[in-house]
Amino acid sequence: MVENIHLKQRTTGLTFVLKSREAKDRRIESQFKNTLNELLGDASRYGSEIVLRKLIMSQIALELAQNLGIDISCIHRRIVLLYEKERYGNSY
C-alpha cells in the first residue's frame, strides 16, 4: 500500500527506483551519514536526552505508519497534535 501511494500515485521515489544499484547504495550511504551527523550535532548542542527522544519518536512514527499503512509525515503531524492536545488541552 505505501509503495503504491509513494511510488505510483505520487511518483515520489521514481528517480531513486530508476537508478543503478551502485547509485542507490551511494544515495543511501549519503543519507545515512547526513542523518548521523545531524544526530551527533543535536547531541552536542542539546544533549543526549533530546537525541534519544527524537529517535524514540521516529521509531514510534515509523511503526505506526507501517502498521496503519499511511504516510509517515501524516503520523508525525498527528503525534504533534496529540502532544499539543495533552500539553495544552483543547485550547491550542
Q: Would you write up a description of this structure?
A:
With about 90 residues, the protein is an all-alpha fold. It has one domain (about 20-90). It is about 85% helix and about 0% strand. The protein has helices at about 1-10, 15, 20-45, 50-70, 70-90. Helix 3 packs across helix 4 and helix 4 crosses helix 5. The chain is flat and about 50 Å long. The two termini are about 35 Å apart. About 0% of the residues are buried. The model has no long low-confidence stretch (mean pLDDT about 85).
Structural class: mainly alpha
- Binned strand content: under 5%
**Average of pLDDT:** 83
**pLDDT < 50 stretches:** none
**Total discrete domains:** 1
Question: Any key phrases for this structure?
Answer:
92 residues; mainly alpha; 5 helices
Show the helix and strand layout:
Elements: H1 2-9, H2 14-17, H3 21-46, H4 48-68, H5 72-88
Write a compact overview of the structure shown.
This protein is mostly helical. Helices cover 83% and strands 0% of the residues.
